[in-house]
Amino acid sequence: MTYQVYDTTLRDGAQREGISFSVVDKLAVARLLDEFGVGFIEGGWPGAVPKDTEFFRRARTELNLRHALLVAFGATRKAGVAVADDPQVRALLDAETPAIALVAKADLRHVERALRTTPAENLAMIRDTVAHLVAEGRRVFVDGEHFFDGYRTDPAYGAAVVETALDAGAEVMVLCDTNGGMLPSQVTAVITDLTARTGVGPERLGIHCQNDTACAVANTIAAVEAGVRHFQGTANGYGERPGNADLFAVVANLQLKLGIPVLPEGCLEQMVRVSHAIAEIANIAPDTHQAYAGAAAFAHKAGLHASAIKVDPLLYNHVDPAVVGNDMRILVTEMAGRASIELKSRELGLDLAGRPETLSRVTNRVKELEAGGWSFEAADASFELLVRSELPERAPAKPFTLESYRVIVEHREDGAVVSEATVKIRVRGERVIATAEGNGPVNALDEALRVGLTRHYPELRGFGLADYKVRILEGSQGTGAVTRVLVETAGAGRDWTTVGVHHNVVEASWHALVDALTYGLDRAHV
Ligand SMILES: CC(=O)SCCNC(=O)CCNC(=O)[C@H](O)C(C)(C)COP(=O)(O)OP(=O)(O)OC[C@H]1O[C@@H](n2cnc3c(N)ncnc32)[C@H](O)[C@@H]1OP(=O)(O)O
Ligand SMILES: CC(=O)C(=O)O
């Protein structure tokens, strides 16, 4: 048996607080998971959740999966009910999937206190349900709920659950760390003991780990190292409470660290795209710092890192980011050294190699400005303008010079608050005075500048303010508090961010706005 990559984003992932997939969302997520190359997609619980019943109905005609098989999830029959009479078991068959996953109690305390039945009846529920579904032609996986907790208090009963499920025809018995409390050494110890006690080979076992100790990925890897061939997880680790094992990290670790090819050729590099697309559908901001898939997974801030990366990127990256579809990024901040500045500039198309004095000047300016509250980490456009101001042959053209600006905020009798700005500027030798209103002082300033500049630069109409962020920074070393403004501008299919800092919020915004217009106009003429 090869490895079974089993995704439960649409079932366990959907149990995460804040996620509510529509049927259309579920179909879209299933297509993405299939593109990522997983072998099984657990689509939900038909008969329990109406959207899941509908998902399986539509999946029959609307999904054309290349790699994955759909799995319907449900529970063993009810205690004291004949399996053929259990409507929940009937709904599993009606989902018409090739495989079914059954959640079964595997911990005596749950049998007695949650199911309120006898140990023997629980085993009969497992046996009857598995045999019934297998007789109906389904592949059956049994999820042993609370398996590890149960086994550690009563290994004989845990072993009986495994033997009952497999003897009844289950393809794989999945050991679940339902409360997510295990550590990797404990997972290994239970699997080693179980296989020795029962003679069941680890290749008949599966693993499903919740992330309550932040060990779900490590626990899953430990189980695979102990011989388990079926492993479950979810996209981005979504799941009940802190979540499930992040399937992306599990798969990447197995392929890249242990050399076990678990995905079809060419699929691993789809990871970042699939991860972010599923996050969008789940309406959860992608986790920037997620291992492998996060935007910062290969982002380097420290100057020492950059100086080694300049020699060889692998000196400070554990793998080549491209193998999972990610990119390396160099961040320019107060922690930058000359190597960081050189690499970042190269990323922006500016070659500073062989210009040690320029590099030192830019590095020192960045450090001084950052000490005063500037932040270039998220403001590539302002950083590029700063570097270019040190390069006579690439210095950006100034679209105008400022004589003065004035902004007023008027609170009217009727409660309306209106801002008005006037700018006096020189554009291509002409003195221009322009006034505009706005819903706030920054909006009014932006509008007034545009009124004054558009006759000379009609391309300004092609871009506009997309986002505006303000942060008040604590004063230090005897200075007052300062305001940092980040302005995001969008146009012509791209966006760029600029920064401004001052103790006055309008002046900080002015700096960021002027950089935004200068950069945008410069780009329009490249
Ligand atoms: C560990 C996991 O995450 S497993 C996945 C859990 N997912 C979900 O619970 C989401 C979907 N669940 C649901 O929609 C509902 O809980 C349903 C439809 C399944 C059941 O709803 P209800 O019939 O109202 O029952 P309720 O949720 O209150 O209790 C669960 C019942 O299932 C029984 N049960 C629990 N586990 C099992 C099992 N493995 N096998 C058989 N019966 C079980 C409980 O004993 C309880 O029975 P009771 O109603 O006779 O007391
Ligand atoms: C089945 C499952 O989701 C669990 O036991 O955690």
Explained architecture:
The protein has helices at 23-36, 50-62, 87-94, 108-113, 119-135, 147-153, 155-167, 184-198, 216-225, 247-257, 271-282, 303-311, 338-347, 356-371, 380-389, 441-453, 505-524, and strands spanning 4-7, 40-44, 69-75, 99-105, 139-145, 172-177, 205-209, 230-233, 299-300, 329-330, 401-411, 417-427, 430-438, 463-473, 482-491, 494-502. The protein has 526 residues and is α/β, with parallel strands linked by helices. The protein has 17 helices and 16 strands. The chain has 3 domains: 4-282, TIM Barrel, CATH 3.20.20.70; 299-371, no CATH class; 401-524, Double Stranded RNA Binding Domain (2-Layer Sandwich). Strands 1-2-3-4-5-6-7-8 form an 8-stranded parallel beta barrel, surrounded by 8 helices. The two termini are 57 Å apart. The model has no long low-confidence stretch (mean pLDDT 95). 43% of the residues are buried. The site of acetyl coenzyme *A has 15 residues, from β4. GO terms for molecular function: (R)-citramalate synthase activity; 2-isopropylmalate synthase activity. It is an enzyme of class 2 (transferase). This is Citramalate synthase. Keywords: Amino-acid biosynthesis, Branched-chain amino acid biosynthesis, Isoleucine biosynthesis, Transferase. It comes from Micromonospora pallida.
Please tell me the CATH architecture of the largest domain by its name: Alpha-Beta Barrel
Bound molecules: acetyl coenzyme *A, pyruvic acid
CATH class of the largest domain: Alpha Beta
Number of helices, counting only DSSP H or I runs of 4 residues or more:
17
GO biological process, one term: isoleucine biosynthetic process
Domain Pyruvate carboxyltransferase: 3-272
EC number: 2.3.3.21
Catalytic activity: pyruvate + acetyl-CoA + H2O = (3R)-citramalate + CoA + H(+)
